[in-house]
Amino acid sequence: MDAFVWDQNFITGVEDVDVQHHALVDLFNELSSTFQSTDLDDREALLNDTFARLVAYTEYHFADEEALMRGVGIDPRHIVSHEAEHAHFVEQIRTIWSARHSMPDTAESIIGFLTSWLGLHILGTDQALARQIVAIGAGTTPEQAWRNEKDFPESKTTQALLKLIARLYHVLAQQNAGLIDVNRQLEMRVTGRTQELAHANEELLNANLRLEAFSRTDGLLGIANRGYFDERLAQACAAAFRREQPLALLMIDVDHFKQFNDCHGHPKGDACLQAVARAVEDTLTRSTDLVARYGGEELAVILPDTDAEGATTVAARVVANVAALGLVHGASQVSPCVSVSVGVAAQVPPHKDGSSRLVEEADAALYEAKAGGRNRWVLAPR
Question: What is the dihedral of CA 350, 352, 356, 360, to 10 degrees?
């Protein structure tokens, strides 16, 4: 069943205009039929195609009608009003179409809006235009033809019908505008809530990252703590075993640190450890290397993919960098300045859980470095 039934009442007498109106009616009815289609797979594509053709033809019709008004010389006041109706309709129907998925009774709302608008427009504005064209053709001035429209003797039936259609059109327009506004406000609230949730998730993620970093960091020295060292060494050992690559470990002890604390006080002892940790960090050049506080005044350095030669080179730099700090040690039996001893172990792990063996070897080499006079490094024998 057609949504808009064309009959003689809609004929204006301007041939081109009537032909175009009839074509618009056909497109309205085609859109209505497509809404009622049971082929759900193709319906959305067909709806979009039909609507695109309808809008394109509407804009063509409006442009042709506006050119006709100017060509005939219709009074400018009618032209301005007529063109405003055209522009408003195109804006409204595009807006309604874009919001159709959020509207209840979509087909009824859109088709009802289209048909009520076209009926009102033809019976009112376009019929008035046709009468002015006829009057101007008979010699009436455009201004007088426009004024005559105000006194045009429409029947009471026609007047009632136009008022009814106008009321229906405005109700539909307000209803659709209200639905679209509600939808936009809902979308804005959803967008705002989504952004709030994203921000909250980001804050939570950052808090978790900060907490994780805090749980892995020594509070005094700002380097990895013992727990994170154990975790990283186990991972590095398993990876080295898998790839059959060497893994090196340095165990570093600040020489006579107890005596430093007794001589200079614990606050300066803390500052001393912080300076030594920075000097050791500055020795490392790769992001994969890790320096950690092993316990007390003892530090450890993990050096992945590093053989004995590379590890002893790093150890020598560590000893030199700490000595270069020039931190006065008033109770040292080794040097007038703070120094360190370093034990070095490097090997291709014989199995993936070989981290404890590597620690034992590096610790034994550290013991030898301290027994040998301190302020030096010693490589564990292989």
Answer: 20
80-123: pLDDT as tens digits: 999 998 998 888 888 888 877 777 777 877 887 888 788 878 88
Q: Using CA atoms, how far apart are residues 62 and 64, in angstroms rounded to an integer? A: 5
Residue type, 98: S
Of the candidate CATH numbers 3.40.50.1000, 1.20.120.520, 3.40.50.1820, 3.30.70.270, the domain formed by 226-379 belongs to 3.30.70.270
| DSSP letter string, 41-69 | HHHHHHHHHHHHHHHHHHHHHHHHHHHHH
Strand partners, 217: 224
> Cα 265–267–273 angle (5° rounding)?
100
Structure tokens at 328: 């006065």
371 CB neighbour count, 10 Å cutoff: 10
Query: Model confidence over 219-271: pLDDT tens digits?
Result: 899 999 999 999 999 999 999 999 999 999 999 999 999 999 999 999 999 99
Query: How far is the C-alpha of 332 from the C-alpha of 316, rounded, in Å?
Result: 20
Q: Are 18 and 6 in contact (CB under 8 A)?
A: no
Q: What are phi and psi of 290, to 5 degrees?
A: -140, 130
Sign of CA dihedral 222, 258, 313, 366: negative
Dist. CA 241–CA 20, nearest whole Å:
82
Residues 252 and 318 sit within 8 Å (Cβ to Cβ):
yes
pTM: 0.50
* Phi, psi dihedral angles at 77 (to 5 degrees): -65, -40
DSSP string over 225-270: -HHHHHHHHHHHHHHHHHHT--EEEEEEEETTHHHHHHHH-HHHHH
Query: Tokens at residue 300, please?
Result: 């450890």
Compute the distance between CA of residue 98 and CA of residue 351 in angstroms, rounded to an integer.
65
